[in-house]
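[job 4471] stage=fold_predict status=RUNNING
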Amino acid sequence: MCRSLSRWWALLLACALSGCATSREHVGEAPSDSLRSIYIVRRGWHTGIAVAKADWPNQRWTVLSEFPDATHLEFGWGDKRFYQTEWAGVWLAIRAAFWPTSSVVHVIGLRAPVPAGADANAIVEVRVPIAGVAKLADAIEQEFVGAHPVATGATLSTAPTPNRFYKAQTSFFFPRMCNWWIASRLQAAGCSVVPWTVISADRVIREAQECAVDQSPVR
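[job 4471] inference complete, writing structure tokens
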């Protein structure tokens, strides 16, 4: 849904929750050789999270093999009808926000290292412990339907190729929307973020930047 959410609607939601306080703890420093990079990628009103295929713990996961030329996979999430529609209207946006609807995961295979291959509005690198990558990967895998996820057949012409959609487990409705999902993955990776307070893409970027500082390595 968030790919083309109307400006007034996004600003309204962002302003409603941007003042919410979040409890934040310093995660602590870690040796640089125990950290791995993940990336928060902003595309308009939508955000995704990218992970290197080489760092994915479950190398037998079938989604990895569907993007053989990719160095990283970027994951996004949203309403099934709105997210897969190139030019969705206001009614689909309202429907997705206020009625629980089915959802999909969008996967983009990035063929060059992030940020060079992402072609995005903004990118934030966050260094997280190996254990955090494992928890993040597990949270992402659990969102897919079935042990061997099957693509829906839809793609987005506005996104880098290759890209595919897959059926997802979680119902989509306010405030559980696309940027909430990314914030939840950041939390799984070990970032101190309160997902339900995160509505806008700007807020996701700020949370990622703060996490990047919190988890800076020992020098």
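[job 4471] summary: The longest strand covers residues 35-43.
[job 4471] exit 0
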